[in-house]
Amino acid sequence: MGVSAAQEGSETTPQETEYSPLDSAELDDSWPIENRENADVLIDSDTDDDVESGGNVVVTADVELDGNLVADGSVVLEEDAEVDGTVTAGQHVRLEADAAVDDDVTAGGHVALQEEAEIDGIIAAGGDVLLQSDAEVDGDLEAGVSLFERDDLEPIPDADGNVRLEEDTEVDGDVTANTVELHPTAEVDGEISGETTELSQQSQQTQSGDDDDDDDDDDDDDDD
After folding, report:
1. In a domain, 13, yes or no
2. Is residue 178 part of a domain?
3. Among 9-13, 83-87, 181-185, 205-209, which stretch is predicted with the lowest mean pLDDT?
4. 3-class SS of residue 77
5. Residue 124 to residues 9, 10, 198, Cα–Cα distance (Å)
């Protein structure tokens, strides 16, 4: 069976909103679903049906869902997974490397596309949006809680609505956000609404170095 569900009566634990995919150079493996094997719905083989869940949903690597996906919690598409429909999440959405959605992605929280991930539609996020190298969005990109006035989608609280477009990313539409970090090689085929700053390779390396320093500090504390 392509779709397996957790035992009936399980509930999604709200994700911590303090963590954003923009906080570090490398995404935390546990974000936004800490234990993927225990997700409320696990799609582990090709499926030709719409999927709707009151919790978290994981589409495992190399699996194709030919239908729409709706989750009250968070959604993860693992490497090379594909959804041939829309993705709507009450919390966060993560596309790992080479994953694809062939329609719009809407999330009450953050959205992250890793290397060479693609969305053939718009992104509408209540939180922040990250596009890592060579990721593509074939439509408008909107970030920020003020964008949402819908009964079916409640944005996460205290979200900044910021966007980071890393090296060789493409957005074939407008970008609307509070702030937009834009790598010189990133392309936006539309207007940018929001405070824009240049994201250089050096600044990415600096951020990565800060993460390493934090890890070293933790190691020192353990030694003590």
Report:
1. no
2. yes
3. 9-13
4. strand
5. 30, 28, 23
Q: Is there a cis peptide before residue 155, judged by omega within 30 degrees of 0?
A: no
- φ, ψ for residue 208 (rounded to 5)? -65, -40
Q: Residue 69 is part of which domain span?
A: 36-198
Residue 169 lies in a domain: yes
| pTM higher than the cut 0.90 | no
Sequence-ordered list of residues with C-beta below 8 angstroms from that of 59, at least 6 positions apart, any chain: 43, 65, 69, 75, 76, 77, 78, 81, 82, 83, 99
For residue 13, what are the CA distances in angstroms to 16, 39, 73, 133? 9, 11, 8, 31
User: Residue 144: which pLDDT band, with cuts at 50, 70 and 90?
Assistant: confident
User: Nearest Cα to 144, choosing from 30, 52, 20?
Assistant: 20
Residue 60, CB-side half-sphere exposure with 13 Å CA sphere: 15
Q: How far from 77 is each of 80, 136, 192, 200, 208, CA to CA, in Å?
A: 8, 15, 28, 28, 24
Total domains in the chain come to: 1
Question: Could you report the per-residue pLDDT of 9-37, keeping only the tens digit for each?
Answer: 344 444 445 689 998 878 988 999 999 99
Query: Is 160 within the bounds of a domain?
Result: yes
